[in-house]
Amino acid sequence: MFLDDYDKVQHAATGDPTCKCEKVVAALMLWSDATHLVTFGTAKIWPIYLLFGNLSKYVRCQPNSGATKHLAYIPQLPDLLQDKLKSFHHKWGTQQVDILTHCWWELMQVVWKILLDDEFIHMSTYGMVVRCWDGIERQVYPCILTYLADYPKKYALPSISLH
């Protein structure tokens, strides 16, 4: 996939047709999982981490390399939502897991709509000129290479009893 994206980028349009910069792919590797904030209680966050696949895995995987960045935090469904849904949804008693799973799905769609906004789409389509660490300017096309995530359903339902 990465090599296919690299080949596509070589023929891709740029925002500036006179730009003669080398065209490269910034391979974005995204990862998310719920993280407990304390060893007691239920406080947790759901971060989305960003890593660059262009870096060697030996650099990328070192805890102190600074290669992992927080991209965003997925909000939790508010506890009040369950009370509201229970009060008006006629199938809440038999389908609450499915209903909350759907709510999680909708929430994730909104998060990704925010992250993959028009600016990101424009950059991934036309590239952006970036001065790299070696001092050379390159036309960089961000591309999501991977997204690894734990399924959030088990974290969405900690207080639900099906009995």
Short description:
By secondary structure, this protein is of the alpha+beta class.
What does this structure look like?
Helix 3 (79-88) packs across helix 4 (92-115). The chain has helices spanning 2-10, 57-60, 79-88, 92-115, 118-126, 153-156, and strands spanning 22-32, 35-36, 44-45, 47-52, 69-73, 128-131, 137-149. The chain has one domain. The N and C termini lie far apart (47 Å). Helix content is 37%, strand content 26%. The strands form two sheets. A five-stranded mixed β-sheet has the order 5-4-1-7-6. It has a two-stranded antiparallel sheet with strand order 2-3. The protein has 163 residues and is an alpha+beta fold.
Features:
163 residues; alpha+beta; 5-stranded mixed β-sheet; two-stranded antiparallel sheet; 7 strands; 37% helix; elongated; disordered C terminus
Map the helices and strands.
Blueprint: H1 2-10, E1 22-32, E2 35-36, E3 44-45, E4 47-52, H2 57-60, E5 69-73, H3 79-88, H4 92-115, H5 118-126, E6 128-131, E7 137-149, H6 153-156
Parallel strand pairs: 1-7
Antiparallel strand pairs: 1-4, 2-3, 4-5, 6-7
Helix pairs in contact: 3-4
Overall tally of structural domains? 1
Specify the biggest β-sheet: 5 strands, mixed
Question: Would you tell me the structural class of the helices and strands?
Answer: alpha+beta
Global mean pLDDT: 84
Strand content: 25-35%
Q: Provide the gyration radius in Å.
A: 21 Å
User: Uncertain spans, ≥5 residues at pLDDT below 50?
Assistant: 155-163
Tally of individual helices: 6
N- to C-terminal distance: 47 Å
Order of helical and strand elements? HEEEEHEHHHEEH
Estimate the helix proportion, in percent.
Answer: 25-40%
Gross morphology is elongated
β-strand number: 7
- The spatial strand order of the largest sheet comes to 5-4-1-7-6
